[in-house]
């Protein structure tokens, strides 16, 4: 906070007031938002053949990831997830910026099938959703890099809850597992920007299609 105040030529109290003005609880919430943002362009647009300028290499790397996804995806988990989406009254889809448009598209697809779910990528709303959740809530988290809980946990202390919500954690980066997550859905073993968005979209489409096949309301 001292560094930001000095760079902006304001007091630390002004920084705190700014945080509250934009809807945050305090400066630590601002730190959470900053940590969730991928600012390095080289990292964001990196793909497997980083030294090649042939875009066909990009297509090949994505194709390879899709084939791997097809071989390794656990269909039983997806079927169970769809069943839970249908039977739980309170369903929330949470994620950071990169997965935001995918979650919103899935929310729209489910709404067209008369299943209304909550969706947000706002750090404050995410915190409130998990803090107020209980065993009657279903939460599906999309985390491309797998660091979702490293960003959120210091503020919400979900480990201290007596009644966990049912949580599915979807990621393209296999990291340490959290004991309060019901099921991990690992779409890839290592994060790769070039393919993670596409794999998320594939899973989103599969969820919507299966929900349509099972629970279409005529």
Automatic annotation (TrEMBL):
| Chain ranges of the HTH rpiR-type domain | 1-41
- SUPFAM superfamilies named among the record's database cross-references: Homeodomain-like, SIS domain
Origin, by domain of life? Bacteria
* Signal peptide bounds: none
Designated name of the protein: MurR/RpiR family transcriptional regulator
- The organism of origin for this protein: Allocoprobacillus halotolerans
Q: What is the lineage of its organism?
A: Bacteria, Bacillati, Bacillota, Erysipelotrichia, Erysipelotrichales
């Amino acid at each position: 906070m001292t560094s930001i105040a000095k760079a902006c030529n304001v007091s630390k109290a002004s920084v705190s007031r700014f945080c509250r003005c934009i809807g945050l609880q305090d400066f630590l919430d601002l730190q959470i938002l900053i940590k969730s943002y991928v600012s390095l362009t080289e990292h964001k647009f990196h793909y497997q053949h980083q030294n090649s300028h042939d875009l066909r290499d990009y297509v090949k790397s994505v194709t390879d990831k899709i084939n791997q996804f097809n071989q390794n995806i656990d269909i039983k988990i997806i079927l169970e997830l769809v069943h839970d989406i249908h039977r739980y009254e309170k369903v929330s889809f949470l994620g950071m910026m990169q997965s935001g448009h995918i979650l919103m598209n899935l929310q729209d697809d489910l709404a067209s099938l008369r299943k209304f779910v909550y969706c947000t990528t706002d750090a404050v709303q995410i915190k409130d959703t998990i803090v107020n959740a209980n065993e009657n809530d279903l939460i599906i988290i999309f985390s491309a890099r797998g660091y979702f809980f490293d960003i959120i946990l210091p503020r919400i202390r979900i480990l201290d809850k007596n009644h966990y919500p049912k949580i599915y954690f979807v990621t393209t980066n296999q990291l340490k597992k959290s004991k309060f997550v019901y099921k991990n859905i690992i779409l890839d073993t290592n994060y790769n920007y070039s393919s993670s968005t596409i794999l998320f979209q594939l899973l989103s489409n599969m969820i919507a299609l299966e929900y349509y096949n099972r629970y279409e309301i005529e």
